[in-house]
Amino acid sequence: MRDETFIRLMALLPKSALSAAVGRATRARAPASVHRFAMRAFAKRYGVSLEEAEHDFHGYSTFAEFFSRRLKPGLRPIEGGERVVISPVDGRVSQAGYAAGAECLQAKGISYSLEKLLGSAEALAPFADGAFATLYLAPRDYHRIHAPLSGQIEAYAYIPGEFWPVNPRSVRSKRALFCVNERLITFLRTPAGRCAVAKVGATCVARIRASYGDVLTHSGKPGVVHRFPQPIEIRKGDELGAFEMGSTVILLFEKGRVRWASSLIEGAPVTMGQRIGEAT
Predict the structure, then answer these.
(1) Which of 41, 244, 271, 273 has the highest count of CB atoms within 10 angstroms of its CB?
(2) Pair type for strands 258-260 and 239-244
(3) Are 7 and 170 in contact (CB under 8 A)?
(4) Strand order in the sheet with 144-146
(5) Domain-by-domain residue ranges, the chain?
(6) How far is CA 235 from CA 24, 36, 190, 191, in A?
């Protein structure tokens, strides 16, 4: 199927309702045998590394718990040094580089507005001309998100939106994809200055859950920007949140504060804790 045909068909799909329905199904308290059948089928279909999971199938009471599973302790060592930037997720590099003013590259020939991604000109201001990296999480991947550097969580923004797929075909074809979809953005203060970790929803990404406070997307609540009166201390590698079904994370840093590693190129695999850059 051509990319253009795929996008036209997706435009007809009730993506929000479908994602909500999938979410309810994955969290439903069905008989354990039903969930274990779904887990096994999913793991076989997508090549999930079951050896890395914290528990076997019997340790998860719903499919959603399995999908957002933790890993066994020690499997993702955190590369050291307070100025070493690590990958916040397991996945693949979709794009990485440096913003052209307030525009970032989505795919060849397609860019998007950081102001629209982040929700306001005020939120955009620190990140104009800064380093960005877009990391895609496939269904088989570990779906928790971690801090790329130590620092403080200063604020978050929940921006409701649509639920387009974020797979490579959609990234190549749907303009401003990451600005259209629902997203939860965590704003950090780090040794590399300000950092934004934008978690982007997608078709069948039922919800995005933060590990700080009562923050849950696609739960019927309106969009919100919240600044913590007392910033929350966080160490590099600490958990920021999880996808209930998987998607994309976009990292943003201030201009001139981060230099990406030469290995951070389109299509390259990354694992959580791996060095991907350096604070300058």
Answers:
(1) 244
(2) unpaired
(3) yes
(4) 144-146, 239-244, 207-210
(5) 3-67, 84-279
(6) 33, 35, 10, 11
Q: What is the DSSP letter of 57?
A: G
Residues contacting 184, CB < 8 A, separation 6+: 156, 157, 158, 159, 198, 199, 201, 208, 210, 215, 217, 241
Specify the pTM: 0.89
Distance of CA 53 to the CA centre of its chain: 19
Instruction: Provide the residue type at 259 as one letter.
Output: R
Can you read off the two tokens belonging to residue 9?
Answer: 């068909």
Q: Which residues are catalytic?
A: 90, 146, 247
**Strands annotated E in 109-210:** 110-113, 131-136, 144-146, 151-159, 183-190, 193-200, 207-210
Q: Rounded CA gap, 17 and 261, in Å?
A: 40
Rg of the Cα trace of the chain? 18
Task: List the alpha helices (DSSP H) in 152-274.
Answer: 168-173, 177-180
Q: Is residue 117 classed as helix, strand or coil in its secondary structure?
A: helix
Structure confidence by residue, pLDDT tens digits, 97-137: 999 999 999 988 899 999 999 999 999 999 999 999 999 99
- Which tens digits make up the pLDDT trace of 34-86? 878 888 998 999 999 999 999 998 888 888 888 889 999 999 999 989 999 99
Place of tokens 């779906």: 143
Helix (H) or strand (E) holding 104: strand 103-107
Exposed, middle or buried, 160 (CB in 10 Å: 0-12/13-18/19+)? middle
